[in-house]
Specification:
alpha+beta, nine-stranded mixed beta sheet, 6 helices, 18 strands
Amino acid sequence: MSDARVTAVRSVEFGVRDVDSAADFYGRVWNLDPVADDGGARYFRGTGPEHHILALHEREEPALIRVNLAARDKQSVDGLHARLSTLDLPSLGAPDALTGPGGGYGFAFGDKEGRKFAVSSDVATHDDTADARDRPRKISHCVLNAADMEGSAALFTDGLGFAVSDRTGHLCFLRCNADHHSIALGHGDAPTLHHVAFEMTDLDSVMRGAGRMRDAGYPIEWGVGRHGPGANVFSYFLGPDDYIIEYTAEVEQVDDSYPKRSAEYWAGLNPPGWTDRWGIAGPPSERMKAAQARIAFA
């Protein structure tokens, strides 16, 4: 199926040192709902229809276990598998019925830099999807550091059907639906996690979430501000095991008519010293800078 493509980032799986403590944080503080407990792993949903958007697995050291991607249907899963089979990947499982929480149909694969992904369709969904003013809806995007930027980008465009939205001096933004980006790749020395962004309903929701985090003892590490590429509102935090997590909202909605812009365009957009479109965010904290390449894939 030549037009098969990924349609969204479905969920992420974090390896954490203390599942109970991390589960308390992501439920009580980050404000996700627990939806399953499978063999000691904990699964959490947002207000959107996805069965879960976060899974926590206990590990001796923090590690990003997998990024799970959505496809429209079983035919799309099979078509994506066929496309990936032409790319000489180091690991590529066969499509099959999935037995974990939410079920579905899909396969797992690893890329040439050691990242782990899965593609799935027909996963169970929730009907109660009303927005809440201070709760995440879904995974908005993941930013992954890449030693081979162009090779990594080609996996997403050639193998998974993404399109490049924009490039800056450091980042390549990739979209798979109307959101300006669902994946971004950053220049790095190794294939590590930069951050995961959780979508809130609007700016007010981002501010409410930031206030709850502050009250729980988690300061803002960068923000609140509005990004250039994607135009989304942002507020960054360090969660358990120093995962960088973001509340975001109002990401720009685009289609194939969107004019992809260059690093030179974005470099000249803001006055010198500004790190966001409003000029109020300031730079990321030293703690956040130190954590930007700390979490490797398992």
